[in-house]
């Protein structure tokens, strides 16, 4: 075996370069994750302030399998342990997403764009790019571990350290996983999709295992890295050896990635790209838009349907638990409906999917921006296609697709819950005006100031943050009112109010019209 | 003769950069018009204004008798455009893109499409992301040449093509002219321009500095003359238009403005000519004169 050193030449330079490129992305992802985790002890103190309330929660957790499927089992009733319980799965998933995005961005993305050739022609070793990508992910995960350890030290330094390391380990596990997948696929989009699918499978395995047992001992749980994280038992008699399991998996996956990388040419992949038809049937800008976006609409649709089935299936059990806790019920009522805890739970879950649909619509609207800046819009617009028609082709998919995925979510809920298809469809569709307002904002930004168009992600993120953790944090109503979702009637269970719904639809129409009018008048950029 | 493109006094700035600074351009219907200028002279900006992708700040532009901004869609039905750097959709095959672009224009001649795919040796089943630069370029070229249009706008269309394909490209352009179509060809490949273009316009810093047929332009430059004479040369230095005169005994070397060549030859004839070589200005010299002015100015700054 030859030594590795010459293959790593230039890694330091590439690492600095990668960190420079990610100077905004890493702090934001890591910062949001840390904020979510570190705000949790306070929230939980409000929810389960007394020892009796906490004991009650623990008792519920042993009997309520739906709740365990949602967030996993708790191993102790201290605030630290409850924090690890409440956010562990989600913070771990977020760390995993951060890591896989970083790794794919600095490996397959670079190769696909052809930039890698330019880099590799310099004094750069054959493994330097992969190594620097993994090191960049390591920096992000180390920062998260540090923030979490320091921030939760007040709940117990040892537990905080274990939790921080566990999160970083989940991140690195998915970083090395992404490194393998990036060798297999030729497109970065597919590499991200496949690694995310693995993450989704890990979530489902853990949920299934945890709903079966109340101590995380199920084989299914142990098959999932997210299950390992909960079995680390931070703040509850840490099992340090679980970290060795992580380490072993990271080393093995890393070795596989390096081995695969050594067996292929730059820009090539193990999964070949199949040839396409020699003649095409696409004939309009609208058909092209559908062709470009149909895969993602399909993916979102399946995801929303499955989420509906899963959450619909948990409804009875979760409502039972919430019903026992005065404060939680209050929160659910603020998030969701007024009458009937089951309805309130359903309303808040449908509402949550509505918030996530805002991400879909932003991604879909910004396809316009991507087509324009990549230069692919130019040959289309140089054809007999007006700008409006070109833009509307994509917007129909953005706005109609949002309706479609919400509808699929409603069907999923009805399947999981076993009844109430009509009211659930109504509840899902009533989210649309707010989703459309977010989409309209993206259209306006894109039309007026294309360079600022990605700021639409900020709007979607803010709406998500306000809707998700706002009610639990006692945020004043004026802040909650900024989000269009705050004005929607709470269905099912609540009263249908047409006023705000129609106002939001009108607002969305105004935003879209304004954006399109501006697009017609401005220069196209490349 | 009708004009395919008329542009006069076109201005376009991006912030503080004046990309177009009073550009004039006239392209006759049925001609192949070369559009030349150093990098950053504003060629692509002008083309993007003509395509209605950019809106001119001031000045007038007409393309096929219409306004490129207001009547973009109708105009584009009769135009095929090939950019210098073609980006394709990664998961669409080359064949799909050709057919799509054709349908977005006035339509596609299926027989010509098949013939062009053959001639350019393009594999239309490959996906966009797997094409090399030259092959991406071919996809756009096949789509343009097979489209049923009146005007082709080609912006450095042959970048990345090998010499054989360059040959195919030139033949295609000639066929287009024979079929009565108009071609606006922006290019840096001078042999290509010399071979194909009826007239050329040279632009610099967003302004047209020279326009006309190649023969016209040649008149504006100098011919180099080397002669061995029977007797001593006389009076050459006094002739107007003579430059860089170098007399060594009976050998004479000089440069002369091409429209003054006649007087020089008469003067040489008087001394008796043993041998004579006269080299007409190459297109390179023509361009270098315009390109170099700029480099000299940049160097002087």
TrEMBL record, chain A:
Q: Which UniProt keywords apply?
A: Membrane, Transmembrane, Transmembrane helix
Flavoprotein recorded as keyword: no
Q: Which residues cross the membrane?
A: 24-41, 87-107, 128-152, 158-182, 240-261, 297-314, 344-366, 395-418, 424-448, 455-473, 498-519
Q: Which domain of life is it from?
A: Bacteria
Name assigned to this protein:
ABC transporter membrane-spanning protein
Source species, please? Streptomyces aurantiogriseus
TrEMBL record, chain B:
Record-linked PROSITE patterns: ABC_TRANSPORTER_1 (PS00211), ABC_TRANSPORTER_2 (PS50893)
Identify this protein by name: ABC transporter ATP-binding protein
> Which residue positions does the secretion signal occupy?
none
Provide the protein's localization.
Cell membrane
Name the SUPFAM superfamilies for this protein: P-loop containing nucleoside triphosphate hydrolases
Gene Ontology cellular component terms for the protein in this record: plasma membrane
Q: Which residues cross the membrane?
A: none
What superkingdom does the record give? Answer: Bacteria
Q: State the similarity comment.
A: Belongs to the ABC transporter superfamily.
Keyword Heme listed? The answer is no
């Amino acid at each position: 075996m030859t030594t590795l050193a010459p293959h790593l030449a230039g890694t330091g330079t590439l690492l600095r370069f990668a960190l420079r490129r990610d100077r905004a992305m890493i702090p934001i992802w890591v910062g949001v994750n840390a904020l979510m985790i570190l705000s949790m002890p306070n929230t939980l103190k409000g929810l389960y302030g007394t020892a009796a309330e906490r004991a009650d929660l623990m008792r519920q957790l042993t009997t309520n399998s739906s709740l365990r499927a949602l967030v996993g089992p708790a191993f102790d009733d201290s605030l630290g342990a409850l924090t690890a319980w409440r956010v562990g799965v989600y913070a771990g998933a977020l760390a995993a997403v951060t890591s896989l995005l970083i790794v794919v961005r600095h490996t397959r993305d670079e190769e696909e764009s052809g930039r890698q050739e330019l880099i590799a022609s310099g004094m750069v070793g054959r493994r330097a790019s992969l190594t620097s990508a993994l090191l960049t992910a390591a920096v992000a995960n180390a920062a998260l571990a540090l923030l979490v350890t320091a921030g939760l030290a007040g709940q117990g330094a040892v537990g905080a350290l274990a939790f921080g390391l566990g999160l970083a380990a989940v991140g690195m596990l998915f970083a090395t996983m992404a490194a393998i997948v990036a060798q297999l696929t030729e497109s970065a989009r597919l590499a991200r999709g496949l690694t995310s699918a693995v993450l989704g499978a890990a979530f489902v395995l853990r949920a299934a295992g945890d709903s079966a047992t109340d101590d995380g001992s199920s084989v299914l749980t142990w098959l999932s890295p997210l299950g390992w994280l909960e079995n680390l038992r931070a703040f509850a008699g840490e099992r340090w050896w679980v970290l060795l399991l992580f380490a072993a998996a990271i080393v093995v996956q890393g070795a596989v990635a390096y081995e695969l990388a050594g067996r292929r040419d730059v820009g090539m992949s193990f999964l070949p790209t199949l040839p396409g038809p020699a003649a095409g049937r696409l004939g309009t800008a609208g058909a092209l838009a559908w062709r470009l976006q149909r895969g993602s609409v399909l993916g979102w649709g399946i995801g929303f349907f499955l989420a509906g089935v899963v959450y619909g299936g948990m409804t009875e059990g979760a409502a039972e638990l919430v019903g026992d806790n005065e404060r939680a019920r209050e929160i659910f009522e603020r998030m969701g409906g007024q009458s009937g805890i089951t309805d309130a739970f359903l309303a808040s879950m449908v509402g949550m999917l509505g918030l996530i649909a805002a991400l879909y619509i932003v991604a879909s609207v910004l396809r316009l921006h991507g087509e324009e800046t990549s230069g692919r819009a130019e040959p289309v617009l140089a054809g007999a296609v007006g700008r409006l028609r070109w833009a509307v082709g994509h917007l129909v998919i953005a706005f109609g697709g949002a309706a479609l995925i919400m509808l699929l979510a409603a069907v999923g809920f009805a399947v999981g819950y076993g009844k109430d298809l009509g009211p659930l469809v109504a509840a899902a569709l009533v989210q649309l005006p707010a989703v459309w307002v977010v989409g309209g904002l993206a259209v306006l930004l894109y039309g007026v100031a294309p360079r600022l168009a990605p700021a639409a992600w900020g709007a979607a993120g803010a709406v998500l943050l306000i809707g998700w953790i706002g009610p639990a944090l006692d945020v004043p109503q004026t802040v909650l009112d900024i989000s269009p979702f705050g004005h929607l009637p709470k269905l099912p269970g609540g009263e249908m109010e047409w006023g705000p719904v129609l106002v939001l639809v009108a607002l969305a129409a105004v935003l879209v019209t304004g954006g399109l009018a501006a697009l017609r008048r401005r220069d196209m950029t490349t | 003769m009708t004009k395919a493109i008329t542009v006069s006094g076109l201005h376009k700035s991006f912030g503080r950069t004046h990309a177009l600074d009073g550009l004039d351009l006239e392209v006759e219907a049925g001609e192949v018009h070369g559009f030349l200028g150093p990098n950053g002279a504003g060629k692509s900006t002008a083309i993007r204004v003509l395509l209605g992708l950019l809106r001119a700040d001031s000045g007038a532009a007409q393309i096929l008798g219409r306004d490129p901004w207001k009547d973009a869609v109708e105009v584009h039905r009769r135009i095929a455009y090939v950019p210098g750097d073609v980006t394709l959709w990664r998961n669409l095959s080359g064949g799909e893109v050709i057919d799509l672009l054709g349908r977005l224009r006035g339509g596609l001649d299926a027989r010509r499409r098949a013939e062009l795919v053959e001639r350019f040796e393009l594999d239309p089943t490959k996906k966009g992301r797997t094409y090399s630069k030259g092959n991406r370029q071919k996809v756009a070229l096949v789509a343009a040449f097979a489209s049923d249009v009146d005007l082709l706008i080609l912006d450095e269309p042959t970048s990345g093509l090998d010499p054989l394909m360059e040959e195919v490209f030139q033949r295609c352009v000639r066929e287009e002219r024979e079929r009565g179509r108009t071609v606006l060809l922006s290019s840096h490949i001078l042999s290509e321009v010399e071979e194909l273009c009826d007239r050329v316009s040279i632009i610099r810093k967003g302004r047209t500095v020279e326009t006309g047929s190649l023969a016209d332009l040649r008149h504006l430059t100098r011919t180099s003359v080397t002669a061995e004479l029977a007797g001593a040369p006389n009076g050459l230095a006094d002739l107007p238009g003579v430059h860089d005169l170098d007399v060594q005994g009976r050998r004479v070397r000089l440069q002369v403005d091409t429209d003054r060549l006649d007087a020089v030859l008469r003067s040489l004839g008087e001394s008796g000519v043993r041998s004579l070589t006269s080299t007409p200005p190459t297109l390179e010299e023509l361009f270098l004169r315009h390109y170099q002015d700029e480099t000299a100015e940049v160097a002087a700054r």
